[in-house]
Amino acid sequence: MSGYGDLPEGWQVWTEDADGGDILVYRPDVFDSHEYPSPCLPTIQVAQRPPTQQKRRAGSNPDGWWVSLTLEPEVRVRDADARFDSRTAAVAGAVDLAERFAAGDVDYRGAYQIPREDYLDELDDRTGREA
């Protein structure tokens, strides 16, 4: 069922549900709650609701699919949010976002008001991004 093909190094499909959405995670072997707090697992979500809407409302008629990137539950990289007309297009958008993230082309530092410097430094090292 997976439409994710070859994800860039470090990314993996955590859950996949064609009706409810998918979750991709980055380096769960590194960001595993031992050295970093457990919420510090970069996550891409593919869902039939905007990232600002917590749950799908009963009887709602979703208008497309959304892709979002979070570094922690309350830290969303808003510049990465995107809307797509179909699940297939959203999956392709999620793969593109994962590729840009892995290449260091996503400004995740800008999502923080109070940064976790050790965590962000580790992400910089893993993605080759310069702070």
Concise overview:
This protein has helices at residues 87-102, 117-127; strands spanning 11-17, 21-26, 43-47, 65-72, 75-76, 82-84. By secondary structure, the chain is of the alpha+beta class.
Describe it.
The protein is α+β, with helices and mostly antiparallel strands. The protein has one domain. It is built from 2 helices and 6 strands. Strands 1, 2, 3, 4, 5 and 6 form a 6-stranded antiparallel beta sheet that branches. The model has no long low-confidence stretch (mean pLDDT 88).
Key attributes of the depicted protein:
131 residues, alpha+beta
Approximate strand percentage: 15-25%
> Helical element count?
2
| Integer count of domains | 1
- Major beta-sheet overview: 6 strands, antiparallel
N-C termini distance: 38 Å
Compressed to H and E, one letter per element, the order equals: EEEEEEHH
Low-confidence stretches: none
**Helix proportion:** 10-25%
SS content category: alpha+beta
Work out the radius of gyration.
14 Å
Shape: globular
Would you spell out the secondary-structure blueprint of this structure?
Layout: E1 11-17, E2 21-26, E3 43-47, E4 65-72, E5 75-76, E6 82-84, H1 87-102, H2 117-127
Antiparallel strand pairs: 1-2, 2-3, 3-4, 4-5, 4-6
